[in-house]
Amino acid sequence: MYSEIELCAKSRFICGKGNAFFESLFKAYKLGGWPCGWKNGKIIVYVPANK
Question: Within 10 A of 7 (CB to CB), how many other CB atoms are there?
Answer without folding.
Answer: 15
